[in-house]
Amino acid sequence: MTRSPNLSKLVILDPALIAAGGHHAGFALMAAKSHKRSGAPFDLEFVCNDAIDGTLKAQLEACGSNVRPEYRLNFYQGFGESKRVSDVQSYIRQAAREYALAIKQTTKRFPGQELVFFHPSLSWEHAFSLSLALDLTKGDEGAALQLVCAMFNPGLSFDGRTLDCLTSLNFRIGFGALQQFSNVQLYASDFEQAEKYARLLNLPQSLRLHPCYLADWENLEKLNAVSERKSTDSSPGTVILYMGDAKRDKGFLDLPKLLTWLLENVADDRQFYIQFSIPWPDSELEKVAEKLTAIAALHWNVELEYRFLNESELHERLSVASMFVFNYCPETYRDKSSGFLWIVASYGLAICCIDGSWISREAARLGGKVLDCRGSKATFLGCVNKWRPGGPVRSLGNNMYRKNIYRGFWSWLQNVSKGSTI
Fold first, then answer.
1. Triad 291, 292, 296: Cα angle to 5°
2. Which of 86, 92, 143, 328 is most exposed, with minimal Cβ within 10 Å?
3. What residue spans of 179-254 are helical by DSSP H?
4. Rounded to whole angstroms, how far apart are CA atoms 57 and 346?
5. Which of 320, 158, 306, 304 is nearest to 236 (CA)?
C-alpha cells in the first residue's frame, strides 16, 4: 500500500485478531468502517494473526484498510492460568520476536512517515513481550508512539485487596517493564482499572482512560435521538433478558427458570426479549435453547431470536427497549468488565443487576438508572413490575466520566497523538 501524503499511519498490532466475533473483531470493524467517515489524518493498517477469518479480513479490506496477517502465536495461550514468568519464557520470547518484526517491517515500508502503534488489549505476557520488542527496536525504529490499552484485571480487587499474588506480580513485572519506555502511553478501559494499575505500578495518579472502542459514538444517530426520547404513553416497554453468544457465566443456563418465574409473577403487559447464538456445538447450551423455544411458543409476550444480530440490528433492538437485565455470575464479574455493558448503557436503559458486580458499579458511574437487586428475588420482581420509562432517558449532563467513555475513537486518537493529556 502506498503512503498517503501528509498522513500519519495508525498501525493496530493485534495478534488476537482472528475470529469474526468478539471484541477484537468488534474494535477492528469499528475502526475500519469509521476511518474514512471520520476524516482523521491517518492511514489505517492492521497487523493480525495469520489465522484471521477470511470474511473478517475481506470486510476490513473493503473499508480501505491494509491487513497484514503476520502473527503466528496464540494470544490466549495459557490465559488466566497461574504461571510464573519463568514458565512462559519461550512464549514471551516468541511474542517479542513477532512484535519486533512487525514494528521493524512497518518502519522499513514507510520510511519518514509518522507512525502510531495501537494495542487494543495486552495481558501481562504481552506487555513483557512488547517491552522486549521495543528494546530490540531502539533508535529511530522504536521511537514511534505506542498506545497500550490496559483492559485485563491485574489481580486486584476494586476495593484494594490483592486477589491473586502471582497474577499481581506478573502484571507488575510486565507493565512495569513497558512503562519505562518514554514512547509508551498506558490507558485504562474504565475507572477501576485506572485505579488498579496506578496502585500496581505505584503511580502518583490514575491512568488516563481510552474511550470504549466498540461503537462509533460520533456517528450513531441514536446518541442525539435517544437523548431526547421520551415515553409517549404508559407502556412499560420491553425487558431484555439476554443478548449475545450463549455463555454460562452470563447466566444463559438460568434463563428458562428465570423466564418461567417472571411469566408467573409479573403483570401481563410486560414483554420479554431474548436473543442468543451458539457459535460452537454444545449440548448443554442447545438443551437450554430448546427449552426457551418451547416457552416462547406458548407466550405472546416473549420474543426469542436464536440467531446472530449484526451491528445495526443490535442497536435498533436496544433503542426500543426500556430495561436490560444482567444476570451475570457475580463471582466472575465481581472484578471483570463487560464491553457490552457500555453499549447497553449508552441507550439510557434501566439496568437491572440481579447480583452486585462490576456491572452495577460501572452502570452507576455512567449515570444511568441502576436497579441493583443484590440477589433479592422480591426486589428484582418489584423492579420488573414497577419500572416505567419516562422523561429524557439519557443525558450526558455534567458526567465527565460518561463523556470520556463515549468519546469518538478517532477524535481521541488525534488528541493523544498530538500530546494531549486527556
1. 120
2. 86
3. 191-200, 222-228
4. 28
5. 320
**Nearest to residue 275, comparing CAs of 300, 307, 317?**
307
The rounded distance, in Å, linking the Cα atoms of 270 and 241 is 12
Q: Specify the length of the chain in residues.
A: 422
- For 235-284, what is each residue's pLDDT tens digit? 567 999 999 999 999 999 999 999 999 999 998 888 999 999 998 899 99
User: CA-based diameter of the chain, in Å?
Assistant: 69
3-state DSSP percent of the chain in helix, strand and coil, to 5? 40, 15, 40
CATH number for region 222-386 = 3.40.50.2000
Instruction: Give the amino acid at 83.
Output: K
Superfamily of domain 8-217+407-417: Glycogen Phosphorylase B; (3.40.50.2000)
Rounded (10°) CA dihedral 160, 162, 167, 171? 30
- CB proximity list for 306: less than 8 A, separation 6 or greater: 275, 276, 277, 289, 292, 293
In the sheet that holds 238-242, the strands lie side by side as 302-306, 271-276, 238-242, 321-326, 350-353, 370-372
Domain ranges of the chain: 8-217+407-417, 222-386
Confidence of residue 286 (pLDDT cuts 50, 70, 90): very high
**CB neighbour list of residue 130: distance below 8 Å, 6 or more residues apart:** 95, 96, 99, 119, 122, 146, 148, 178
DSSP 365: H
Tell me the C-alpha distance between 419 and 3, whole Å. 23
Secondary structure, 3-state, 272-308:
EEEEEECCCCCHHHHHHHHHHHHHHHHCCCEEEEECC
Which residues have C-beta within 8 Å of that of residue 111, sequence separation ≥ 6? none
